[in-house]
Amino acid sequence: MNKLKVMSIFGTRPEAIKMAPVVKELENREEIESIVTVTAQHREMLDQVLDLFNIRVDYDLDIMKAGQILSDITTGILKGLEEILIKERPDLVLVHGDTTTSFVAALVSFYQQIPIAHIEAGLRSYDRYSPYPEEINRHLIGVLANFHFAPTYKAKENLLRENVSEDNIYISGNTVIDSLFNVIEDNYIFDNNQLNKIDFTNKKVILLTTHRRENLAGGIRNIFGAVQELILDNPEVEFIFPVHLNPKVRELATDILGGLERVHLIEPLSYKEFANLMAKVYLIMTDSGGIQEEAPSLGKPVLVLRDTTERPEAIEAGTVKLIGTGKDEIIYVANSLIENEQEYSQMSNAINPYGDGVASRRIVEMILYYFGYRQDKLEEFIGEEERILEMNP
User: Fold this and answer.
1) Which listed residue (25, 120, 214, 365) is catalytic?
2) In this protein, which residues make up the domain named UDP-N-acetylglucosamine 2-epimerase (predicted)?
């Protein structure tokens, strides 16, 4: 048989982190010709991940520009990607998650009648504007995709309700856990020496991240206001906030949190540094999606600063709480974890439902199965929810 030509397309740092182990697995298979195309929807942050995982890029659209909006990203990818797909004619295009890069890549692939596989398929909040535009991107990719690699049983259920054929859905686990396990180191020394000076043992250090579009309208002010009060009320608490590159986020962070004692505003970290920082802190407050999946593997409770989440599994497992962006609620829930050791222990010891570190191998094996290079279908990832169902049918 001829080699199977697989093109992986991604453009942001979160996509790159989750696609990296898949790309490396593709590269190791003699039956596969792996091609990597990046849009550089994020430039600097994307390049950090490419360097970390030593990923060779075959095509780079380099679309990022100052002040770009969604329509700029969409048209830039549309114009640049079609020519590449016509030239290469891959047997399969891989896209990940919910970015504009992933949606447009799936759309252009469909125009060229090239099969599409969607990694991290089936996540839903069922609120079209939260997260925005990611929720609609997920739905649209789900309509366009031929194969759906769902990270969890619940994600598979979402796809089945949308009339996706069960034959084309496979529960793989989440590839972010594969990447995470590859970069965590005992006794890690940070490149940012400011972090090496923080007493993670005797202080209750809270990691904060916030950047989502839907929070910029007012939620982020509430979040920063809650940080102010938590610092004043808890002398044992310190905050670390790697400030997102979005100018609006940086301006508000400087205005509200700048100069506060025990609040460390730092530049964005490389993925390896950030992952090892997560491993050291006491608690994480975030509006990120991926952190909801990563932190439970490290035994870190997560407070999600959003009104909705497309990742309910960790909430049900007990390691994540969805608390919104109301100032009083943030303060109340954070204080309960700072003060109540039993409640903290329950969250930090909850079981992560998202993966076991071999999702990428499952995905590549199933690609080979779908295209006739493997005869036997690989067993799906079994998370905690599925184990409970098996025990209590």
Assistant:
1) 120
2) 24-367
Question: Which residue of the set 29, 139, 213, 374 is catalytic?
Answer: 213
Domain 188-349 has CATH 3.30.565.10: no
Q: Is 264 a catalytic residue?
A: no
Radius of gyration (C-alpha) of the chain in whole angstroms: 21
State the residue for tokens 């995905």.
363
Indicate if 120 belongs to the active site: yes
Joined together, the tokens standing for residue 166 give 């069960």
Residue type, 373: Y
Q: What are the tens digits of pLDDT across the range 284-314?
A: 999 888 899 999 889 999 999 998 888 899 8
| Active-site hit among 221, 244, 262, 374 | 244
Alpha-carbon span 21 to 148, nearest angstrom: 18
Closest CA to 282 of 197, 200, 187, 223: 200
Stated pTM of the model? 0.86
CATH superfamily of 4-174+355-391: Glycogen Phosphorylase B; (3.40.50.2000)
Round to whole Å and give the CA distance between 219 and 325.
5
Residue-wise pLDDT for 344-363, tens only, equals 999 999 888 898 999 999 99
- List, in order, residues 6 or more apart from 55 with CB less than 8 Å away: 16, 20, 23, 24, 36, 49
Domain ranges of the chain: 4-174+355-391, 188-349
Instruction: From the candidates 211, 212, 264, 306, give the one annotated as an active-site residue.
Output: 211
How far is 95 from 227, CA to CA, in rounded Å? 36
